[in-house]
Here is the input.
Amino acid sequence: MPVKIGIPRSLLYYKYFPLWKTFFEGLGAEVEVSGPTTKAVVQEGVKLCVDEACLPVKVAFGHVASLKEKVDYIFIPRLVSVSPREYICPKFLGFPDMVRNSVHGLPGIIDTNINLYRREGDLYGQFLEAASPICRNPLKVAAALRSAVGELKRFNGRVESGMLPENAFRVQEEKFPFQAENRGTVALVGHPYNIYDNYINMNLIGRLDEARVRVVTADNVPEPVVNMYAGTLSKRLFWTLGRRMVGAAYHFLDNPRIDGIIHVASFACGPDSMTGDLIERRARRAGNKPFLNLTLDEHTGEAGVVTRIEAFLDMIDMKMGVDAGVGDWGLELGVGTQNTELRTQNSELRI
Amino acid sequence: MIGFLGLDVGSVSTNLVFLSEKGRVLESVYLRTNGRPIQAVQRGLRQIQGLLPPKTVIRGVGATGSGRNLAGIIAGADVIKNEITSHAVAANRMVPGVRTVLEIGGQDSKIIILRDGVVVDFAMNTVCAAGTGSFLDQQAARLNIEIENFGELALKSRAPVRIAGRCAVFAESDMIHKQQMGYDLPDILAGLCEALVRNYLSNVGKGKDISAPVVFQGGVAANRGMKAAFERALQTEVIIPPHFDVMGAAGAAMLARDFVSRGAPTRFKGFGAAEAGFEAGSFECGGCPNLCEVVEIREEGSVIARWGDRCGRWSVRAARENIS
Amino acid sequence: MKVTFPHMGHLWICLKAMLEYLGVDTVVPPPSTRRTLDLGSKHAPEFACMPLKLNLGNFMEASEMGADTILMAGGCGPCRFGYYAQVEYEILKDLGYNYRLVVMEPPEKRISELLSRIRQITGNRSWLEVIRGIKFGYRKARAVDELEMSAMRLRPREIIPGQTDAALSAALDEIAGAGRPEDLPEAVERAEEIMRGVAWENRPAIRVGLVGEIYTLLEPFANLDIERKLGRLGVEADRSIYLSEWVNDHLFMGLVRGIRSSRLYKKSAAPYLRHFVGGHGQETLGGAVYYKNLGYDGVIQVLPFTCMPEIVAQSILPGFSRETGTPVMTLIVDEQSGDAGLVTRLEAFVDLLAEKRRGKERLA
Here is the structure.
């Protein structure tokens, strides 16, 4: 029977899943991904993880716990650095230790250091280590890594062309998900695990899609553009994800095709507190686009999120109305956002 | 008489207003929602009907607040609008040129920034109650003060006491501590107002370009101590508009008025809706580990709406059944 | 040019000495107070950590005193501190402050990188002078640390309550007052004399190790004077990091030998946290192990709300506590912290430690 490797559907899953999956499958292992985030996953994560951690880390704990009885190994690499001279957040550096000290009854853990801070040449050695419980044949590992890196490149290409990661994971090209009538384009800026986890963000992308809004995310922006805009900072940002978020947000502020920007942050997230400020400050200085800051944690009420999104879209409608020279803005409001959508849940409502 | 209705169903209170043809607020009612929004809407309809001449014609209805969808279904609303936009519309109509709207209600608070009558920025409070009216309610209860007298007493303060604490629970323990140290009641009350203002400004108000004219609305605006505390913190005059406590409902009614002015007939079900047999129930869907609690609204036995499911499996079906 | 810098405990004593030795006009911000924190929290991002908020408040207050240039340390992550200077600068810019910013990024390869950065504000002073200035500052840091250590030993044993703190403050004044390197030895002598004047008796004291994030450990305003509070409860405290150690580790690349270094902590943290996590997260665990090995009764972790490296440490400390039987308490501080709650919790923790020690003694 092949070795079964569990991959939590959390944190950098949204950026590296194709790499990891192709790699382990190339070694002859079977890969099992935890299911989509659900209330049960969040509850389990909240129970296991220290309260001060951010929601995405708690959710990741929940995913690890949901895999522990199903697989031989759980792959939670210590993601020190995925890009030269940059880090991710400190919690990624300590994540395997946090898990080990808080989750009981774990199967084997593959927590290889992924550290590309110094130079890229070491990647092979790191994956050789990750492969060691399954396969110690260096040639096989090298071949698996080669095809995994190729797969990741193709995946990144699909994402840059405008696909959402969950769609881009599938090999066959699919139609662009946003076919709906276009009521403007909104850019989402935030950590991938907040933007793409529909449970964490209360189906933000789906809601925007339903409201006939086209969505682009920071991951759709090509790396050179990100770097060009991030380069306008007075000091290079040392968080890989943060640099992408800031660079993409500055690009969106500059891009006339973007009608508004939603910044999605986790409650008490360290990097978000800094990059969010850098983004919001510049958005405010530019003053040309509606900007919404959504802060999420496990206590966030859905009603509040819905209200904020609706009010944000009203802001875009008003601005478009004003720009188009339409008179009384109140009059224009009823049209686009006449809201007969009944899926809005009011979590505080008890009848 | 001809006019428009606005309903604002929040978690704490339910407000209704009657707007004249010309767009002025003529009548308003305020009820506690008491966790029973359907009954609150129905009682509200009955009460406001009682205030109006017998042959009043309702041309349009707007619903807002966290219970806006429910209210919209029961009354038959023409416009269902989020409370940010509704509050902004009302403030802008009553105080033309307003640039900042501070709104503090029982369990939520918001700030809205307008420029030339257009909302350009806004924020709502996060989960914490420390930036909302319930903070003052709790402390008033703790101090055995009627909330109605809170503001007058606070105005007598000469040196407000500093009360620390982001969350209402911590603030309470700090307040008790200050009480035990022997501070004067008015100084404690004024200190609570300042704590609320501070929490409000550093939470929803953070980074916002607050400039005059500033309008302060929502139930808490009745507290004159709060107006004074805001004026001290912002160093500018703070305007409390007429009908400050029903601005959401007023805004919804104004939006309904705009909407039907383009010729659409109203969907208002009539005041008879107050007597119709609405039932709300909920069930836990076991379809996936999300275990969503699905809310179901029935009118005279048949399902007219469902919501609360993340996947849409129930709500879509309800909508389809409704159409057929 | 009038140069200011943020407060962090007694850091100002050594920075002021160094800068003034080099002929730089220096503005020491008023000590951090409630007002400082209010000013900072009002304009800083809500989830920024407390040190950033206090830095910002320091700069706003220093500007009232005429400062026009900020001297700030940098960093290369992953802790947020490395980007503080830039974010603070942007906030100040939007508030209309017209500051010039000089960031001392930690040297990556050679100590000369640090020297050239210092020269940005000292102009054309000779290298030798710059090195002498740094040495002067560093020697003051060592002197301050020695005084603080002796205060921590004295507090739980003083006969007249409050005498230690009065002496400490007078002794620190002596160190701060030494204007030239050649005056320092005598000032140190006088300071030690003042500390020797504290009347004490030999009583057993509960021993507590303070570990955690450096700023909240070193800045009494941030940690609500935890060292004094513990001293008053009859506790002899020690902390895992002192100013001179930090300066040596971070700015001098560990060139000064013979003092405690973070390398020690990194080694002892290994069973619990195998990798650095930025800030002082790994040192926090290493420090806990260090104090346990020295036979301390308990460990208190101090961190600012939302501090990422310390949250990693916080989630691992319970495992350490379970395995070693060492009581650990975590104290999270932010602009909302109040004194009343802290005193209650410290008293309860110290009672627990005392009870545990009595239990041990009964068994022995």
Observations:
- Chain A touches chain B through 53 residues (CB under 8 Å).
- The first strand of chain A starts at residue 4 and ends at 7.
- The domain at 4-160 of chain A is CATH 3.40.50 (Rossmann fold).
- Strands of chain A lie at 4-7, 30-33, 73-75, 78-81, 108-110, 113-115, 185-190, 214-217, 260-266, 291-296.
